[in-house]
Amino acid sequence: MEKLVYLISANREASGDALREGLIEIAVPVIHRSGGLRVSVNVDDSAVKMGDGVRISRGTPPIRAMVSFWMENSDDRKPCEEALRQDQKLIAGYLVAESRPLVSDPVPGERSQGANLVTRIHKKFDISHEEFIDCWTIEHRQVAVETQSTFAYVRNEVLRTLTPGTPQCDGIVEESFPIEALTDPHVWYNCQEEAEYKRRLERMMNSVNAFLDLEQLESIPMSEYRLD
User: Fold this and answer.
1) pLDDT at 89
2) CA angle 88, 93, 96 (to 5 degrees)
3) Sequence-separated (6 or more) residues with CB below 8 Å from residue 143
4) Class of domain 2-227 as given by CATH
């Protein structure tokens, strides 16, 4: 089995709710018919509108959604990509290796609780791939678990791109937070005292600065829908 991840870009003014409905009603059935399993649709929709303050977007048009699924053979993906491109949307496809340090199993067909922060990451140019993986999977994993209110955490290490013109990157992260974290940094960092919040924030920033190129980082709050 192989996991495929597609980041979907659309105009910022476009309705996220309409984007969600189009993906669920049109693209997901095609994915299922093509052999796709464990389909997950993440969309920047109205349920996470309050998260605009923590959004980090760089592209034009910006990333607005992510669709991931598993296939026996990624060579059979073409009909899926055609469905994801509905209405001339831009898609960036990646073949990834998934690991789940924190597991949550939401009810299929319903909006998952909280908000899912989808982040495209690049390693620092001056460290090796091995150093990047060690920092990401060992040191940073511990920092993330100990400093934040994350209740689900998916690491997608990028193996190769799947679609023409797709930007290179090293990983795509999915982190689920309580919805209140989008507007309250104390909830995000799972603490009440201001001094403890600052300590945890500093620890987190030291960790990400050790292995990520923050100038290229893109991070978008989304609603997650599992459609197995």
Assistant:
1) 76
2) 160
3) 203, 204, 207
4) alpha beta
